[in-house]
Amino acid sequence: MTIGERISALRKKNSMTQPMLADAMDVSQSTITSWENNRRAVGNEDLIKLADLFHVTTDYLLGNKQTPDWASDSDVLELKDFLNSNVNMAFGGVTLDTKQKKRVDEILTQIYWDELQKEKKRKLQEGNANE
Questions:
Q1: Domain spans of the chain?
Q2: Phi, psi dihedrals of residue 94, rounded to the nearest 5°
Q3: Cα(99)–Cα(79) distance, integer angstroms
Q4: Pairing status of strand 90-91 against strand 94-95
Q5: How far apart (Å, rounded) are the C-alpha atoms in residues 110 and 6?
Q6: What is the pTM of this model?
Q7: How far apart, in whole angstroms, are the C-alpha atoms of residue 107 and residue 110?
Q8: Quick check: 9 and 61 in contact, CB under 8 A?
């Protein structure tokens, strides 16, 4: 997943439009569009602002680390088990090559973290409601 795809996914996950993100970042909407389409590099200061805004690390945005800060060690192990259970991925009877498997792993990882975060928030809200 590219940095532009990560920015777009985080923006959408946070129910933000491009104009809303542009306002929050104090940049133009065309800058957001350029970032999301990987036509323009994100500067260091903006990278830090994005990470702070979305509560992720700069490494996560850059694709160096896909594990969110809030994830526990057991969450990481569960993800590894999940990904390893899909080792022999195939499409149309043809086994995926290494690059294709990596891309599928990236997508599954993002979905896993998104869904786990929703589940943790739901449990927290249920716990607060029972108090």
A1: 1-65, 67-131
A2: -105, 125
A3: 19
A4: antiparallel
A5: 9
A6: 0.54
A7: 5
A8: no
Q: Which tokens is 50 given?
A: 């994005």
Q: What is the CA radius of gyration of the chain?
A: 17
DSSP state at residue 55: T
Q: What are 94's strand-pairing partners?
A: 91
Torsion angle (degrees, nearest 10) of CA 112, 62, 45, 20: -40
Tell me which H or E stretch contains 30: helix 29-36
Sequence-distant (≥ 6) Cβ neighbours of residue 42 within 8 angstroms: 3, 7, 35, 50, 61
pLDDT tens digits along 43-97 = 999 999 998 898 887 877 888 766 777 888 788 788 878 777 766 677 777 887 7
Domain 1-65 bears CATH identifier 1.10.260.40: yes
Residue with tokens 């985080």: 10
Angle at 45 between CA 42 and CA 49, to 5 degrees: 90
